[in-house]
């Protein structure tokens, strides 16, 4: 590895990326303070992790990938249908713990998660972009203590990382 490759490698390692943990569900809900805040039938329950490096351009690409993921079965049993194709719904849950760092000690650090004001702004932007494409978009409340319930259909879970998605565009 030459010096320039090494610098690129080090730079890539310190940059953080948006993460979406996508779970194909037959139903899902989020409860806050004993009340159902969002509830869906067939679709995706998505845990959303945001860092300080995220912006609207990254969100737009991630939302496009999310809503076009073909992970529902067609008439031949092949995973070939997207959320829109099956009339699927979305439940979006902000989850800063996707950026937990457990390298030192046993107590996770969350310094890699986006600053609350900025992360909430990006979370609201994700919701608004999804609503432009999907009829039913439910959500949790940013920063709230939430109880999430779901029936994972498959199970089928995919982690989308913005670094991988944007690199391939």
Would you write up a description of this structure?
The protein is of the alpha/beta class and 169 residues long. It is 28% helix and 34% strand. It contains 4 helices and 8 strands. The strands form 2 sheets. Strands 1, 2, 3, 6, 7 and 8 form a 6-stranded mixed β-sheet that branches. Strands 4-5 form a two-stranded antiparallel ribbon. Helix 2 crosses helix 3 (116-131). Mean pLDDT is 87; it is low at 6-14.
Percent helix, as a range, is 25-40%
If helices are DSSP runs of H or I spanning 4 or more residues, what is the number of helices?
4
Rg estimate, integer Å? 17 Å
Please outline the major beta sheet. 6 strands, mixed
Strand content: 25-35%
Task: Compute the separation of the termini in Å.
Answer: 26 Å
Provide a concise account of the structure shown.
The chain is about 30% helix and about 35% strand. It has about 170 residues and is an alpha/beta fold.
Characteristics:
4 helices; 6-stranded mixed sheet; 169 residues; two-stranded antiparallel sheet; alpha/beta
What's the topology here?
Blueprint: H1 3-14, E1 19-32, E2 35-40, E3 43-49, H2 56-68, E4 72-73, E5 79-81, E6 89-94, H3 116-131, E7 137-139, E8 146-161, H4 162-167
Helix pairs in contact: 2-3
């Amino acid at each position: 590895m030459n010096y320039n490759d090494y610098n690129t490698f080090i730079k890539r390692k310190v940059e953080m990326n948006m993460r979406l943990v996508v779970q194909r569900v037959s139903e899902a809900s989020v409860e806050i303070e004993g009340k159902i805040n969002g509830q869906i039938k067939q679709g995706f329950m998505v845990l959303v992790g945001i860092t300080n490096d995220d912006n609207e351009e990254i969100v737009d690409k991630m939302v496009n990938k999310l809503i076009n993921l073909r992970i529902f079965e067609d008439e031949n049993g092949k995973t070939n249908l997207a959320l829109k194709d099956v009339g699927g719904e979305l439940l979006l849950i902000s989850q800063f713990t996707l950026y937990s760092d457990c390298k030192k000690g046993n107590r996770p650090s969350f310094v890699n998660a986006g600053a609350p004001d900025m992360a909430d702004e990006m979370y609201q932007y994700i919701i608004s972009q999804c609503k432009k494409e999907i009829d039913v978009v439910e959500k949790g409340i940013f920063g709230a203590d939430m109880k999430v319930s779901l029936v994972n259909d498959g199970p089928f879970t995919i982690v989308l990382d913005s670094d991988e998605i944007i690199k391939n565009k």
